[in-house]
Design a protein that fits this description.
By secondary structure, the protein is of the alpha/beta class. It contains 17 helices and 17 strands. The structure holds GDP-alpha-D-glucose.
C-alpha cells in the first residue's frame, strides 16, 4: 500500500457483517459468511486494521457484542466490528423487500421479479440513516469511508450531510442496468442522488459506469463530463470509474499448497483417475441470477448430444442457501434439488450418476482444494457484477489442467478472455462449448490458464483496494487542507 495512506482512518460499511455469531442450543457458534463482498474485504481490513460497520444479523450477535462492538477475528483480533441491530420490520422492509426484491432483480435486469413498495423505501431510508449515524460517530476527523453496494445507496448522501469533513468511496458490486430499465425504480432519482453523495463511485465494468452516467444525465438532468467521468457540483466533484474486483491469488495458492489440502486434493484426483471420470464443479449462492437451473438444462442437453461423456463426468454442484426468508429463493432451492434428482434418474447407469448436489457451504480451504482438483468449472450467471468464483477457480489451478466455462454476461468475462464463453440461455451453445473445452489438448489448456493466472496476479484484490483507497486518500487530504 502507498505510504501516504493512513490505514487506521479507514471505515468499511457493508450490509453483511464479516463475522456472525449464531446461538445454537446453549452455545454460540461463529459462522463463516459466504458472499463476494466479505471474502474480498476481510483479508484487506485485517491487514490495514480500522473499523467495519455492518448489520448484526446473527442470533448471538448481541451476546458477543452487548454494546454493538466486537473485536475481530475473534481468535486474533485485528479490527473493530460495529454492529447495527435491526428490528424484524426493518429487516423485512430494508433487506428482504427493498434491497433484495427491488434493487437486486432490477439491477440484474429481471424485471418480472422486481417489486417496489413505498413503505419499504421509507424503511430502507431509515436503516441507511442508522448506518450513517453510527459511522458518523466513529469516523475520525477527515477520515476515509468505504461503503458498499445496493443495500446502502442512500448512505453516501446522508453521511455527507452529517459529516462533511470525511471522504467517501462507494462501490456498487452488482451490474448497473441501462436507464430504460433503471427508471422503473420509483425512487430512481433518490437512489442516484444518494450515491452521488460519494466522492468516488466504483463499478465493476466500463459498461456499468456508462449506464450510471446516463442515469445521472437522463434521470436527474445533471451535466456529466464524459471525458473525465465526473459529475461536478459547485463545491466538489464525484469521480465515477470502473474498478473490477478480484481475489487474493497468492493466498489461494498457499491454501491449496498446504499439506492437508494437498493430500485431500491428491486423493480426489486419484479416485477420479482410477474411476476414469472427469470432475466438474460449480459453486454459487442459491440465487436465480446465477443460472443454476439453466445450467442443469444445458447439462441435460450435453449428455444427450454427447453420450460418450455419460459415465465419464461427475459434476459437483455446490449451492449455498441464501436469503431464505424470501419465498422465491426457497422455491429455487427446491427446484434445483428436484431437477438434479431428475437428471440423475434419467442418466444413471452402472452405479454412476452425473450430478452430486451439495446444498450447503464448505470451508474455504476445501473449496479451493476442489477448484484445484477439478477438470472443469462452470459459471453460468444470467448477469453478474463480476463473479469471484471464476477468478478463484483459475487462481487455484496450480496444475494447469482445468478449463473454465464462463457465461459471457458475467462481469468476469470481460477480463478472463481465455475462458470458454457461452450464452447461459442457449443450452445448445452451452453444451457445444463444454464439449469443445473438454476436447482441448492439455498444452492449450495450460496456456489459457497461465494467461488468466498472469492477469489475476497483475490485478489482485489488493490492487483493487489500493486503487480505490489511494484515490479516496487524495480526496481526504484535499478536504483536510481546506
Ligand atoms: C457479489 C456480486 C461480485 C461460495 N460458496 C461458498 C463460499 N463461497 C464464496 C465464493 C466467492 C463468494 O462466496 C461468492 O462471490 P461471487 O462473486 O461469486 O458472488 P456474490 O455473492 O453474488 O457477490 C458479484 C461480488 O459481489 C464481489 O464484488 O463478484 O458479481 O453478485 O468468494 O468462494 N465460500 C465458502 N464456502 C462456500 O460454500 N467458504
Amino acid at each position: 500500500m502507498d505510504s501516504s495512506y493512513q490505514p487506521r482512518s479507514l471505515v468499511v460499511v457493508t450490509n453483511r457483517e464479516p463475522y456472525v455469531d449464531e446461538k445454537i442450543a446453549n452455545s454460540i457458534r461463529r459462522l463463516e459468511t459466504a458472499g463476494g463482498v466479505v471474502s474480498a474485504l476481510d483479508p484487506v481490513l485485517q491487514q490495514v486494521h480500522g473499523a467495519w460497520v455492518a448489520w448484526g444479523s446473527g442470533s448471538g450477535d448481541r451476546d458477543t457484542a452487548p454494546h454493538g462492538v466486537r473485536m475481530v477475528p475473534p481468535q486474533a483480533p485485528q479490527y473493530t466490528l460495529h454492529r447495527i441491530f435491526l428490528s424484524p420490520e426493518e429487516v423485512n422492509g430494508y433487506y428482504n423487500h427493498y434491497a433484495n426484491q427491488g434493487l437486486w432483480p432490477l439491477s440484474h435486469m429481471l424485471i418480472e421479479r422486481t417489486k417496489f413498495a413505498r413503505e419499504d423505501f421509507q424503511t430502507y431510508r431509515t436503516v441507511n440513516r442508522k448506518f450513517a449515524r453510527r459511522t458518523a460517530q466513529i469516523a475520525p476527523q477527515n477520515g476515509a469511508i468505504f461503503s458498499h453496494d445496493y443495500h446502502l445507496a442512500l448512505f453516501p448522501r446522508i453521511i455527507r450531510e452529517m459529516r462533511p469533513d470525511v471522504a467517501v468511496a462507494h462501490f456498487w458490486h452488482i451490474p448497473w442496468p441501462p436507464f430504460t430499465i433503471f427508471r422503473l425504480c420509483p425512487q430512481h432519482q433518490e437512489i442516484v442522488r444518494g450515491l452521488l453523495g460519494a466522492d468516488i463511485l466504483g463499478f465493476q465494468t466500463p459498461q456499468d459506469v456508462d449506464n450510471f452516467l446516463t442515469a445521472v444525465e437522463r434521470g436527474l438532468k445533471y451535466p456529466v463530463d464524459r471525458e473525465t467521468h465526473t459529475v461536478k457540483f459547485p463545491n466538489r466533484e464525484v469521480t465515477v470509474r470502473d474498478y473490477p474486483i478480484s481475489v487474493d491469488i497468492t493466498a489461494i495458492e498457499k491454501m491449496v499448497e498446504g499439506p492437508r489440502i494437498r493430500r485431500w486434493t491428491r486423493a480426489l484426483r486419484h479416485k477420479a483417475e482410477s474411476q476414469q471420470v472427469m470432475l466438474g464443479i460449480s459453486v454459487d449462492r442459491g440465487d436465480y441470477t446465477k443460472g443454476i437451473l439453466q445450467r442443469l438444462t444445458a447439462l441435460e442437453e450435453f449428455f444427450e448430444r454427447y453420450p460418450e461423456y455419460q459415465e465419464r463426468i461427475v459434476f459437483l454442484q455446490i449451492v449455498v442457501p441464501t436469503r431464505t426468508a424470501v419465498r422465491e429463493y426457497r422455491l429455487l432451492h427446491q427446484k434445483v434439488t428436484e431437477e438434479s434428482a431428475r437428471l440423475n434418474r434419467k442418466f444413471s447407469r452402472n452405479g454412476w450418476q452425473p450430478i452430486i448436489h451439495v446444498p450447503r457451504s464448505l470451508d474455504r480451504p476445501r473449496l479451493m482444494g476442489l477448484f484445484r482438483a477439478a477438470d472443469f468449472a462452470i459459471v453460468s450467471s444470467l448477469f453478474d457484477g463480476m463473479n469471484l468464483v471464476a477468478k478463484e477457480f483459475i487462481s487455484a489451478q496450480l496444475d494447469n489442467r482445468g478449463v473454465l466455462l464462463l457465461s459471457e454476461t458475467a462481469g468476469a468475462a470481460a477480463e478472463l478472455e481465455e475462458a470458454f464463453h457461452f450464452n447461459p440461455l442457449d443450452a445448445g451453445n452451452f453444451a457445444d462449448q463444454l464439449a469443445r473445452a473438454l476436447q482441448t489438448p492439455l498444452n492449450e489448456r495450460a496456456q489459457r490458464i497461465q494467461m488468466m493466472r498472469q492477469h489475476i496476479h497483475h490485478h489482485t484484490i489488493y490492487d483493487w483496494m489500493h486503487q480505490i483507497v489511494e484515490a479516496l486518500d487524495q480526496v481526504a487530504q484535499s478536504y483536510a487542507s481546506r
